[in-house]
Amino acid sequence: MPRIQSLLVANRSEIAIRVMRAAAELGMRTVAIYSHEDRFALHRFKADESYLVGEGRKPLQAYLDVDDIIRIARRAKVDAIHPGYGFLSENPEFARACAAAGIVFVGPTPEVMTTLGNKIAARAAAVAAGVPVMPATGPLPADVTEVRRLAAAVGYPLMLKASWGGGGRGMRVIESEADLEVQLPAARREAAAAFGNDEVYLEKLVRNARHVEVQVVGDRHGNLVHLFERDCSVQRRNQKVVERAPAPYLDDARRAELCEAALRLARQVGYTHAGTIEFLMDADSGRFYFIEVNPRIQVEHTVTEQVTGIDIVKAQLRISEGARIGDPDCPVPRQEEIRLNGHALQCRITTEDPENNFTPDYGRITAYRSAAGFGLRLDGGTAYSGAVITPYYDSLLVKVTASGADCRGGDPADGPRAARIPHPRARDQPAVRRERDQPSGLRGRPRDHALHRHDARAVPLREAARPGHAPAALHRRRDCQRSSGHEGAGAPRVVAPAAGAAATPAQRGGRRGRPGSPG
Questions:
Q1: What is the pTM of this model?
Q2: Which of 56, 151, 165, 240 has its CA 20 to 30 A from that of 293?
């Protein structure tokens, strides 16, 4: 297969910039797409060329406009399209559209994506591969009486899940039959709105569970390897907040068992490129159960890159060119040559406001102070002075990944250097820091822990800017101290309404969430 000379990234913000960096290092010309609302976004200017996509469409729909993305790809004469994560990254019809246009889709085949995109089909593949699965129902029928019977057969408590998609959408904890009758219609509506399909199913709930996932990479010649595991047990609303590698609670024997199970499933479906096999581990018994497969690059791929030294995005691109795992021209060596080297931890710095139920905030960043130092990696998309944060997309500003040779007795956050990491002053950062500083820290806390239970009084409050007034005046240190009630509370928060902007829902007392999270 010929080398990719030109690559279009069908995504935005942080992951688009990350893919462009890898492509540029491989000598590829890069092409970006952007919605009207993203016309000033940084990813547009990081590319060699950029094109407006989905003109006249809503902010999210612009990045889901398959026909227009293919039109741009043809106009820009690209060889391949990388979907990133979220948006169209798990859409087999998009992969088929790329193939029909003679464009390489950087990811698994549409057939594999179809199998893995449906959680029930993926579960069946896991059973065929001999991978442990959680007791569960099939797709729930419309007959409520039959649903009750199926639920009773599995046994309460249960987790109600959408068959398609992820990110916690459509997910509900069902404690009893009464809960089922109330939550089922709501879950169906949410699943239909998020994924275009209201199919749901029930799965046995493990209360004291850890969330652990295995990174796999496969080429187009039948070779598959794992890059070990990540722990993602610190979550809020069933979405990951802190990720680390390796998982601190696994010994060598259990690690080998888990990774081999992931490879068996990947072989069963003929997986290629980068993907993540997700498991729940019962913290009491140590048994693990398959959850789902994410057939794409993950938000948290950075921690795996730090501990293995393997550039996963470059691996995706070179595999799309036909490279074989283990060959000199492939970034991925043979399995026996892949080693764990130290520990890494990633925190997502977002605009979410702990004082307002973690609702995303928006406005203009008038001041930005970044983390820095040996062992720190920043993957950012909108974290810079002057950036305008819109209410239309995911709340992520920057991913901070800290890595080191050891984890100081099981937790890299326990080390004095980690405790002094100068995180960007965003809304949720103090809440993440307090989670890190809890007595149990990040030592594999079971996933039912709720980050939002910690109070967030240390986060400075923002005074609302009046339309037409420069927001910089809001960020004098004394204003920050007075509004927060804590003298010396630190640098003022960075997000303020754009100067001259009309009153926003936040200023009127009602804030909008930011959809489109990759999960």
A1: 0.77
A2: 151
